[in-house]
Fold this protein.
Amino acid sequence: MPFSHRLACDIPVSLTRHVDVIGDVAVVALPPGTEKYGESVVAAIRARRPHIHTVLAKISRVTGERRIARYEVLAGGDTRTIHREYGFMYRLDVGSVFFTPRLASERQRVTSQVVPGERVLVPFAGAGPFVIPAAFRGADVVAIEKNADACRYLRENTRLNGVEGAVSVLRADVRDCIAILGKNPPFDRAIVPTPYGWDESPVSIAPLIRAEGMLHFYTFAPRRDVASACENLCRAGFSVVSCRRCGHVAPGVSRWVFDLSVPPLSRLSSGRAEVISPVHRPYMQESV
């Protein structure tokens, strides 16, 4: 048996069960006390995926305005890569731009609903995994992103995928753009993959969307909070078309998407529609 395969057999299975592969970069989470298995983890990953060049261990959760985590390099070193997903290509630096391959099927589900000619708003756009497919389907997309590196890669990815003429990139804080964008014609659809810690509600985005337009709102919650979240959204005036779990992020906490039909402004509650009860937000800090 090759030495690399012997190393791969010498580790707990759980350490390589959940590996995020972004292009030729693999990201793993090594719990405290398992650092000694780093070399074996690299061997196991490369034995299964020979194309992997760089292996990173995530050592912090996603934090800060740039929405990035900190990593320890286990092998390789170049964190720049090209990720391919449903026929699209995304150039990015894993070390400076947030990207999760775990939402690939969810991104396909939502963007497949886009109709040619729609005006689509995508806050927290990152490197463009929601933006590019929506634009490719014929939408006019406004993408908002605060991270300068992400904006640079997003613009490059619009060119790489041939949709640069359909995408406007705004480097700004989402909160600062709401008043400005409110002066323009309303959007037909908003796709809002909120990061952990963003405490605005769907009500703050809704005035930017036409009546009966769609708002796909992503957030984090324990399952026990989902029913009350739907009730709160209905009381605020939204119609909850569907609610789906789209990923586990921490013990007892999942990422959820609420597909909402937006009411006319006259029927939209002026209060906050709490999707997550504030009492559970500290619990969510376990999310990485």
Q: What stands out?
A: Residues 3-78 form a domain with the GMP Synthetase; Chain A, domain 3 fold (CATH 3.30.300.110). The chain has two domains: 3-78, 98-286.
